[in-house]
Design a protein that fits this description.
Strand content: 15-25%
CATH architecture: Alpha-Beta Barrel
Strand order of the largest sheet: 1-8-7-6-5-4-3-2
Oligomer: single chain
Distance between the termini: 12 Å
Number of helices: 9
CATH topology: TIM Barrel
CATH class: Alpha Beta
Helix content: 25-40%
Structural class: alpha/beta
Largest sheet: 8 strands, parallel
Order of helices and strands: EHEHEHEHEHEHEHEHH
């Protein structure tokens, strides 16, 4: 496997000192900052808007990886791009015109990803894999942090890895949901190269230690 990336999800951070938390995981070896956007419409929770994204932008030079769990997508995608996002992922079923939404995000100068819930089929990748930069596999049902990893997600991760390898495209394979030190190796073995972790990192007293352990487990 090539490069691996750890993306702490600020959904699990101490929001009362978010700038400090972002700087801390940056210093501890994080590769991306993952930003979970929920709208209480597409998913049953409400989290962050573009203003919070722009407020953390000065605190890190790491790419900000925005996961839009919203419907509709296009307007918020543009706002997050303008707020400093580097990569924006959305759920294909949340857009009436997936190809158009991909282009909307690209036109803002951002990389683009497609996100798939545990029961969402992958067939849209037949028509989009050569147009995107990342596939995000949800290994929990979206809407809340702190859920347990769904083991059947490993089969889906492996299927996407095969699709990417066969395509020859340079596409990251990200997994989000229940990732922790004791299961990250099996997720990497299935084919993932980018790992979102929230409570497993921010619930630990030493960010450097837990991120280091995750990278060691993958490399083992």
């Amino acid at each position: 496997m090539g490069d691996i990336r750890i993306a702490p999800s600020i959904l699990a951070a101490d929001l009362s000192k978010l700038g400090e938390e972002v700087r801390a995981v940056d210093a501890a070896g994080a590769d991306l900052i993952h930003f979970d956007v929920m709208d209480n419409h597409y998913v049953p929770n409400l989290t962050f808007g573009p203003l919070l994204c722009s407020s953390i932008r000065p605190h890190t030079k790491l790419p900000i990886d925005v996961h839009l769990m919203v419907e509709p997508v296009d307007t918020l995608a543009i706002e997050f791009a303008r707020a400093g996002a580097d990569l924006i992922s959305f759920h294909p079923e949340a857009s009436r015109h997936v190809d158009r939404t991909i282009n909307v995000i690209k036109d803002q100068g951002c990389q683009v990803g497609l996100a798939f819930n545990p029961a969402t089929p992958l067939h849209v990748l037949d028509w989009t894999l050569d147009k995107i930069d990342l596939v995000l596999i949800m290994s929990v049902n979206p809407g809340f942090g702190g859920q347990s990893f769904l083991e059947h997600s490993l089969d889906k991760i492996a299927e996407v890895r095969d699709l990417i390898d066969l395509s020859g495209c340079e596409v990251w394979l990200e997994v989000d949901g229940g990732i922790k030190v004791d299961n990250i190796a099996s997720v990497a073995e299935a084919g993932a190269d980018t790992f979102v972790a929230g409570s497993a990192i921010f619930g630990h007293s030493n960010y450097n230690d837990v991120i280091g352990q995750m990278k060691t487990q993958i490399a083992a």
